[in-house]
Design goal:
Keywords: Glycoprotein. Belongs to the 'GDSL' lipolytic enzyme family. The chain is mainly alpha-helical. It folds into two domains: 45 residues, no CATH class; 191 residues, Rossmann fold (3-Layer(aba) Sandwich). The strands form two sheets. The chain has a two-stranded antiparallel ribbon. Strands 3-4 form a two-stranded parallel sheet. Strand 1 and strand 2 form a beta hairpin. It is globular, with a radius of gyration of 21 Å.
């Protein structure tokens, strides 16, 4: 059964109810097809939310957004502990300014917009601020739950170590900020033709790329990050032998 979403009042909600399979068209081209669960699982973990504000209020808006996010996150970890968890790892944010999705969305001709790693300075500063505030929140959480082991997962440092040692770890130095699965632009990423859409190519050697689809990392990148994270986190959990 095919239903045009422009004929539906609530578009996707009604389409999910009426259709067993959904197809999404962009610019007249079929980009993906599948049932509601498949599409949400594959494409539902990402969105771009843009706020336009005056430059003098930019930092205030960004930090308010971080604060709101942290409150929700800490509440979630409180629920986990209340359910009985005795060892909890709270992950920090990675340097988001190094990801193709953001490098593409906020690409700039100003050299000052980029740091020593050619990542977006403002976004990495925001991630650093988020992580600092998160660590402060964890300290307070430990006071409320003195019998629970709560460990900060330093994803920022893990990614940074991976990125700065990428070539010695076997990654292609010319493709560190390019998506393996993607198309167009300096970062091989196009928001309207993302990985999984019809005709979007995949690189020959995914293990030589850090970024898989511009948003997520490749298995090899995750593997190397996880090895460092485990070596850093596990001793702090004080697990019984």
């Amino acid at each position: 059964m095919w239903v045009r979403t422009d004929q539906l009042k609530n578009s996707m909600e009604e389409a999910e109810h009426l259709c067993e399979r959904l197809g999404i068209f962009v610019g007249g081209r079929l980009q993906c097809i599948g049932n509601e669960k498949q599409l949400k699982t594959r494409y539902g973990g990402f969105y771009v939310f843009t706020i336009t504000t005056s430059s003098e209020n930019e930092q205030e808006v960004e930090r308010a957004t971080v604060a709101s996010h942290l409150v929700d996150g800490i509440r979630a970890f409180q629920r986990v502990i209340d359910y009985g968890a005795v060892r909890v790892v709270v992950p920090g944010n990675i340097p988001i300014g190094c990801l193709p999705v953001y490098l593409t969305a906020f690409q700039s001709n100003a050299s000052a917009a980029y740091d020593e790693d050619n990542c977006l300075t403002k976004l990495n500063d925001l991630a650093t601020y988020h992580n600092h505030q998160l660590k402060e929140a964890i300290r307070e959480l430990k006071k409320d739950y003195p019998n629970t082991v709560i460990v900060y997962g330093d994803y920022y440092r893990a990614f940074q170590r991976l990125f700065r040692n990428a070539e010695s770890l076997g990654f292609d130095g010319a493709s560190l900020q390019k998506a393996c699965c993607g198309t167009d632009g300096d970062y091989n990423f196009n928001l309207t033709e993302m990985c999984g859409a019809f005709g979007v190519p995949i690189c020959r050697n995914p293990n030589e790329h850090i970024s898989w689809d511009g948003v997520h990392l490749t298995q090899e990148a995750y593997k190397i990050m996880s090895e460092w994270l485990l070596s850093d986190i596990v001793p702090k959990l004080h697990c019984p032998i």
